[in-house]
Amino acid sequence: MNTQIRENLLELLDGKSAHIALETALKGFPINGIHTRIDRSPHTAWELVEHIRLAQSDIIEYCCGDGYAAPVFPEGYWNLEAGGTINWQNSCDEIISGLHKLRELVANESADLLAPLPNGAGHTLFREILVIADHNSYHLGQIMLIRRMIEADGREV
Q1: Helices marked H in 108-124 — which ranges?
Q2: Which of 11, 25, 28, 47 is least enclosed, having the fewest CB within 10 Å?
Q3: Using one digit for the tens of pLDDT, what is the confidence trace for 110-129?
Q4: What does the alpha-carbon distance between residue 31 and residue 20 come to, in Å, rounded to a whole number?
Q5: Digit-coded pLDDT (tens) for 12-44
Q6: Cα distance between residue 156 and residue 140, in whole Å
Q7: Cis before residue 74, ω within 30 degrees of 0?
Q8: How many CA atoms lie within 13 A of 67 on its CB side?
Q9: pLDDT band at 1 (very low <50, low <70, confident <90, very high)
Q10: N- to C-terminal Cα distance for the chain?
Q11: Whole-number CA gyration radius for the chain
């Protein structure tokens, strides 16, 4: 596998270039605002973080786990129960840990990024890395918008 491709994928997972690093955005979110619902926004920051965690964990299991079984869609990818400070931190830690695991998979030069996955219908690790990066960045944009709106409104959070 071309070294440049691995480096590009690692850069994408690191949140460099056109993306903010997921770790940076999550670390700076005001904890008292995780359940704030901005007008016409379908989700809170907490719901989005949980969605990222659940979806990313599912894709990692899809790539690495034996006997993979997909969660029920869409319910298995959303946790709509309220969480507190410890829940937020645990979810963020799990997301970051998952990103580290994905970075290790990509950096492993013996891993064939283009080989079909055992659990997939021709899907590859390369494809799944792109899916995770795209999915995470989409929802991270929503989280950052919620954060900016909370800050701009001067809301008590």
Answers
A1: none
A2: 28
A3: 999 999 998 777 899 999 99
A4: 19
A5: 888 777 677 888 888 889 898 999 998 888 999
A6: 22
A7: yes
A8: 0
A9: low
A10: 48
A11: 16
Q: How many other C-beta atoms lie within 10 A of the C-beta of residue 46?
A: 26
pLDDT digits (tens, 9 = 90+) for 60-93: 999 987 788 999 999 999 998 999 999 999 999 9
> Which of the 8 DSSP states describes residue 67?
T
Helix (H, G, I), strand (E, B) or coil at 65: coil
Output the six-digit token pair for 129: 């890395």
* Contact criterion met (CB below 8 Å) for 149 and 38: yes
Q: Is 66 helix (H, G, I), strand (E, B) or coil?
A: coil
Q: What percent of the chain has pLDDT over 90?
A: 66
| Secondary structure (DSSP) of 13-45 | HHT-TTS--HHHHHHTS-GGGTT---TT-S--H
What is the longest distance spanned by two Cα atoms in the chain?
Answer: 51
Overall size of the chain counted in residues = 157
Per the structure block, which two tokens stand in for 8? 């590009």
What's the rounded Cα separation, in Å, for the pair 66 and 62? 8
Could you tell me the CA-to-CA distances from 157 to 29, 45, 96, 125 in Å, in that order? 11, 12, 24, 40
* CB atoms near residue 122 (< 10 Å): 7
